[in-house]
Amino acid sequence: MNTEQELLDSAALTVYRLNGQFLTIGDGLAAPAGISVAWWQVLAAVQQQPLPVAGIARAVGVTRQSVQRIADLLVGQGMCEYRPNPAHKRAKLVAITTAGEAAIARIDPQHAAMARRVAEALGPAEFATTVQTLTRLSAALESIITADDPATRTAPPPPAG
C-alpha cells in the first residue's frame, strides 16, 4: 500500500469514527428535546429556509428516502409542515414549525456548551482550521465523485503514446 492509500484509509477511518462520535453526542444533545439526532439534522437543514426532501438529503449527506421518512415523522409530530414548491409541483417544501423551532431551542444551550468544550480542547484557532480542512476534504471528494462514474471508471486511463 502506498502512502496516498494509507492517508486515504486513515482519513476514512477517522471520519467514520468521528461520525459515530458526533452521532453519540448529537443523540445526547437531542434526547432532552424528545427527538433523535436524525430528526435534529432535518430540522436544522430547514431552519433557515424550507427545502425539498432532495435538497435536505444533499445538505446532510443521506439518502432522499431516509429524509422522506424523517420528514413524514416530523410533519406527523407537528415539528415540520409541507408547503407548495413554486419551482416543482410534486416536490413539496419541508418547513420548520413553531414546535420544531422550540425543539431546537431546547437543544441550543447544551449544544453551545459542547461547542465551547471542543473549542477549549482544541483551541479556537485549531478548531476553525480543523473545520476548514474537513470542509476542503469534503469538497475534494464531492468533486471526484461528480467527475467520475465509479461504475465505469475504476482506474486512471493508461498513459498516452
TrEMBL record:
Residues 4-139 form the HTH marR-type domain. It holds the Pfam family MarR_2. PROSITE patterns: HTH_MARR_2 (PS50995). InterPro entries: HTH_MarR-typ, MarR/SlyA-like, WH-like_DNA-bd_sf, WH_DNA-bd_sf. SUPFAM superfamilies: Winged helix' DNA-binding domain (SSF46785). PANTHER family: MARR FAMILY REGULATORY PROTEIN, TRANSCRIPTIONAL REGULATOR, MARR FAMILY. This is MarR family winged helix-turn-helix transcriptional regulator. It comes from Nocardia halotolerans.
